[in-house]
């Protein structure tokens, strides 16, 4: 039962009558019976006239129950003006799934409980009503409308978490192969010393569901065919495991130990298959609402999130919140009334481990190395073990432990990371055998427009011995020689432009026994400061000013440059004038002036692809002039680039530098094979357009164009693995098509090749005039088309959409009669519209 009444309430009438009648009751009678008579709305039973006393007796009816403003069902109740008995509390609670302690809540609602009539809202805009904060559970019963609103205390409710799957769904992809190929070449001609070099790289992925076999190989001018890594791996449900020729490049890498190839195994945590990454790296925010409420979240008094929630305890979706650690203000409104306001400290960082688990990994095996003319990596007769674990310490900090060990070296590292509102800081310490130790510090901050970062890393390894006792290279070491590096960078807005500066210091072979000021230690120190500003911008022209100063040890360089830019739809032009002053330690200062001109043309639609062409001429400060150009072409099947520069130095023969690359990929599965473009990925979508050989479609992946598919062919669209995608197509150009407009959902893991087939048929919009055999216009005739019927007007003019391969029109002329008009073989077509002229219908 779900009812609504609008009548004079029986208890409202009772209260009014009893209030009037009570004026004639003797105070002595009230005093005498004060401790023994029941009361109704504060009135003794003897104070109620006998004709109305039956209204104060317990009444039984069926009431509508609501929770959080939503109807949850009906149940029999027995009530008096101040109390209520729910016949079956368990039946009411069975309709609520968010109760964490049903037994306690049921006990609180059992027997005779207060009906709280004083909390009923009399007027629609009343705000000091309709709320109840019971210790466990309670109701507000409105006897006028037979409505019971249920309230449950927050500790007895489950938290409504964000409804997102934790892991990527399982893949149903059959066996598939993805092969990526990249060729790179480089060389120089002229000056009597011609040189050239080339390499061919390949990445082979054989995948089946969540499992994949990986092989990375190459072939170069100086080396024969070599396999770099070759392993079998499975990565699903947050766990990664693999075995073979491995080269670890995970997230918990050592700060001081170099990466080493091994023939062995790996197992550990993986975030690749997690779908809730936006939330697991952030502090959960939970709120409690008594009903349907509006929630606002503010940072620095700025609204960053708003939503509406239902009654109960629930978690806010923080996936859109910015990264950092900061204070939030949460406000909960009932209409325009602010019910709650409180603060929470919030942290979100991609560097912090998930708050709900410890990340870990273990890897071990026999160390290997690449040798010339050897296909597979060769063993160095030494074992290696690596392990790491990371866990959050507080909401905005984490601790990570890493260990690496061989037969000769062992190290243990600990890294502490903390993130504030506009800053972060990490400190890493390392201790190893043979007195090796290391310290690394990283920090960044921003205040206003200023951004600062500082990095400092130092390794002490006095016992480093790169050679064994027999004079051979010691290949079992993963710690290098002692070294130190420092860097500081700054970026800010300044005088209407952008100012940036940097400092770096690097030193190898540290010798703490000799003061730095007394030795030439081979260290390198570099300072740089630059300022850039656009000083004029009008229409498609712009003028930029750039100032730059750099210093490396005793060499100093200062530059001032003006660049005039012009941009149009397909062309970009730049003219640069530059003045430079150089001071070197062993030479006198020199000043020079030069200029450079370059132009670039680009077009998105050329020969079924996109192309760029650039030319340049430089006579900048220095001792050479340069003239060169480059070309780039990206097709649905491949990507190619080539660049060449003719250089004429002042003091030697001229020469030409050149380099180029070609990238492509192909995919194979049980449905066929297809060739992809240069943007290779570790999984792929194969799109088949069935019909219309000349058709060209944009392939939309999650609403964004990801490639171009052609009719009656297979097109490979490389896509990033560990993802869910919605795939559809959209026609390109001005032609009309009748095509499959459905969205298809796919899940991709490494090596997966999913095939989706779309149907497409070209259509034409025909525009013409129909006449009968006597030459009279056929008016109000109907022509069946692809989208219903088209009708001629009073002059026989029609417009109808038909398949492009059709050559006749069937025309209904009324009274059950029809005729046929033949479409001529040749007619004028413009932007998908065919002008067929006058057609005679026979």
TrEMBL record:
- Keyword check for Membrane, yes or no: no
Instruction: Tell me the ranges covered by the Pilus assembly protein C-terminal domain, including all copies.
Output: 748-842
The biological process GO terms on file are: pilus assembly
Q: Which Pfam families match?
A: CooC_C (PF15976), TcfC (PF16967)
UniProt keyword Signal, yes or no: yes
Gene Ontology MF: a single term: fimbrial usher porin activity
Q: Where is the Pilus assembly protein E-set like domain?
A: 282-342
Query: Which Gene Ontology cellular component terms are annotated?
Result: cell outer membrane
Q: What PANTHER family does the database record attribute to this sequence?
A: OUTER MEMBRANE USHER PROTEIN (PTHR30451), SLR0019 PROTEIN (PTHR30451:SF5)
Q: Please report the name of this protein according to its UniProt entry.
A: Fimbrial Usher protein
Question: What is the originating organism of this protein?
Answer: Parendozoicomonas haliclonae
């Amino acid at each position: 039962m779900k009812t609504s009444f609008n009548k004079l309430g029986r208890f409202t009438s009772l209260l009014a009558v009893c209030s009037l009648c009570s004026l004639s009751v003797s105070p002595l009678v009230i005093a005498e019976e004060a401790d023994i008579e029941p009361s109704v709305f504060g009135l003794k039973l003897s104070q109620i006239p006998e004709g109305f006393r039956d209204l104060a007796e317990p009444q039984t009816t069926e009431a509508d129950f609501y929770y959080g403003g939503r109807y949850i069902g009906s149940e029999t109740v027995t009530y008096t003006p101040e109390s209520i008995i729910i016949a079956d509390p368990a039946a009411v609670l069975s309709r609520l799934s968010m109760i964490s302690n049903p037994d306690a809540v049921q006990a609180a609602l059992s027997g005779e409980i207060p009906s709280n009539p004083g909390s009923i809202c009399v007027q629609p805009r009343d705000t000091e009503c309709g709320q109840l904060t019971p210790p466990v559970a309670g109701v507000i019963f409105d006897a006028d409308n037979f409505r019971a609103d249920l309230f449950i205390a927050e500790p007895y409710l489950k938290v409504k978490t964000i409804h997102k799957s934790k892991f990527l769904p399982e893949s149903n992809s059959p066996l598939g192969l993805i092969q990526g190929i990249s060729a790179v070449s480089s060389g120089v001609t002229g000056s009597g010393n011609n040189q050239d070099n080339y390499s061919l790289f390949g990445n082979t992925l054989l995948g089946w569901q969540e499992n994949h076999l990986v092989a990375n190989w190459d072939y170069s001018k100086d080396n024969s065919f070599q396999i770099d890594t070759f392993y079998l791996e499975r990565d699903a449900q947050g766990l990664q495991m693999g075995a073979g020729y491995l080269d670890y490049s995970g997230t918990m890498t050592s700060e001081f130990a170099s990466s080493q190839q091994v023939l062995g195994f790996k197992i550990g945590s993986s975030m690749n298959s997690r779908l809730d990454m936006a939330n697991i790296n952030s502090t959960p925010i939970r709120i409690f609402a008594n009903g349907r409420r509006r929630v606002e979240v503010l940072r620095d008094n700025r609204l960053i999130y708003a939503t509406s929630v239902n009654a109960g305890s629930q978690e806010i979706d923080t996936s859109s919140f910015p990264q950092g650690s900061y204070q939030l203000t949460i406000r909960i409104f009932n209409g325009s009334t602010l019910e709650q306001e409180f603060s929470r400290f919030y942290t979100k960082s991609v560097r912090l481990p998930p708050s709900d688990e410890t990340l870990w990994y273990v890897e071990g095996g026999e160390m290997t190395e690449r040798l010339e003319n050897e296909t597979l990596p060769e063993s160095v007769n030494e074992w290696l073990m690596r392990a790491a674990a990371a866990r959050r310490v507080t909401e905005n900090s984490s601790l990570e432990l890493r260990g690496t060990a061989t037969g000769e070296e062992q190290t243990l590292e600990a890294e502490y990371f903390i993130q504030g509102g506009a800053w972060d800081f990490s400190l890493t310490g390392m201790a190893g055998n043979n007195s090796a130790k290391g310290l690394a510090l990283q920090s960044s901050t921003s205040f206003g427009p200023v951004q600062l970062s500082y990095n400092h890393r130092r390794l002490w390894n006095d016992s480093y011995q790169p050679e064994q006792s027999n004079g051979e290279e010691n290949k079992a070491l993963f710690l290098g020689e002692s070294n130190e590096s420092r860097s500081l960078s700054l970026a800010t807005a300044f005088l209407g432009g952008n100012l940036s500066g940097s400092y770096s210091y690097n030193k190898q072979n540290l010798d703490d026994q000799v003061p730095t000021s007394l030795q030439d230690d081979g260290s390198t120190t570099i300072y740089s400061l630059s300022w850039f500003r656009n000083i004029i911008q009008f229409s498609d022209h712009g003028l930029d000013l750039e100032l730059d100063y750099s210093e490396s040890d005793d060499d100093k360089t200062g530059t001032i440059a003006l660049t005039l830019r012009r941009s149009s739809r397909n062309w970009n032009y730049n003219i640069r004038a530059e003045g430079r002053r150089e001071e070197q330690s062993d030479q006198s200062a020199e000043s020079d002036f030069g200029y450079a001109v370059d132009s670039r043309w680009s077009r998105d639609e050329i020969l079924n692809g996109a192309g760029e062409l650039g030319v340049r001429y430089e006579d900048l400060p220095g001792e050479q002039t340069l003239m060169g150009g480059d070309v780039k072409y990206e097709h649905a099947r491949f990507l190619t680039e080539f660049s060449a520069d003719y250089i004429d130095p002042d003091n030697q023969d001229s020469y030409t530098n050149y380099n180029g690359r070609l990238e492509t990929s192909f995919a194979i599965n049980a449905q066929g094979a297809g060739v992809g473009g240069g943007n290779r990925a570790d999984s792929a979508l194969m799109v088949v357009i069935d019909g219309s050989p000349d058709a060209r479609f944009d392939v939309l992946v999650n609403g964004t164009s990801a490639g171009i598919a052609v009719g009656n062919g297979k097109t490979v669209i490389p896509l990033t693995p560990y993802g869910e995608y919605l795939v559809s197509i959209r026609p390109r150009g001005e032609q009309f098509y009748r095509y499959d407009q459905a969205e298809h959902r796919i899940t991709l893991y490494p090596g997966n090749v999913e095939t989706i087939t779309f149907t497409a048929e070209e259509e034409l919009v025909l525009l013409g005039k129909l006449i009968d055999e006597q030459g009279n216009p056929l008016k109000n005739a109907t022509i069946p088309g692809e989208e219903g019927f088209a009708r001629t007007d009073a002059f026989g003019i029609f417009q109808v959409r038909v398949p492009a391969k059709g050559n006749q029109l069937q025309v209904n002329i009324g009274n059950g009669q029809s005729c046929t008009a033949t479409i001529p073989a040749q007619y004028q077509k413009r932007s998908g519209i065919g002008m067929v002229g006058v057609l005679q219908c026979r």
